[in-house]
Write a structure and sequence with these properties.
Blueprint lengths: L19 E6 L3 H17 L7 E6 L5 H11 L4 E9 L5 H20 L3 E8 L2 H7 L7 H18 L1
Parallel strand pairs: 1-2, 1-3, 3-4
Helix pairs in contact: 1-5, 2-3
């Protein structure tokens, strides 16, 4: 019978080392600023030194995958956290951007075999986006950072 691997509880089990990149959209900055603060707080809670974290601001969510790809290609990082906010307007633009960004980020995980998290909000209203970027335990930037740290640990174990 195959030996079962320990499941990650989401809490720090082993200290993660290496550099982490954070790509954050400037568009909807009130929201993305909150996501960034949430992500940085998780990294600090996990004893991640600020000197090992690179934050790169891009114009909008659409530019996140290309920037993340260059970070993956550089070989300098063990994970990339992608943060943005796409809020539905009156046209189909929302769907095209959301699909492009999510597909771009997923492909990077597989192409580079490294954790690239999807911390890009896709909300119907400004209120939904603001709620998910508040300074609390429901902040999606926190979740995106936690996912990257967990995946770094998991990939080192397998």
């Amino acid at each position: 019978m195959a030996k079962e691997k320990k499941k990650s509880s989401g809490k720090s089990q082993k200290k993660v080392s290496g550099r982490i990149a954070v790509v954050v959209s400037r568009f909807n900055e009130e929201v993305t600023g909150g996501l960034l603060q949430g992500a940085l707080s998780i990294l600090r809670e996990n004893k991640y030194a600020d000197k090992n974290v690179t934050v790169i601001h891009v114009p909008g969510a659409y530019e996140i995958p290309l920037t993340a790809k260059h970070l993956c290609m550089s070989g300098k990082y063990c994970g990339v956290i992608c943060l943005g906010a796409v809020i539905k307007g009156e046209t189909a633009h929302f769907e095209y951007i959301s699909n492009a960004v999510s597909n771009g980020i997923m492909s990077l995980n597989l192409e580079y075999s490294m954790p690239v998290s999807f911390g890009v909000l896709t909300c119907y209203t400004d209120e939904q986006a603001l709620k998910r970027s508040q300074n609390d335990e429901h902040n999606k930037g926190r979740e995106a950072a936690s996912a990257v740290l967990d995946m770094i640990r998991i990939l080192k174990e397998i």
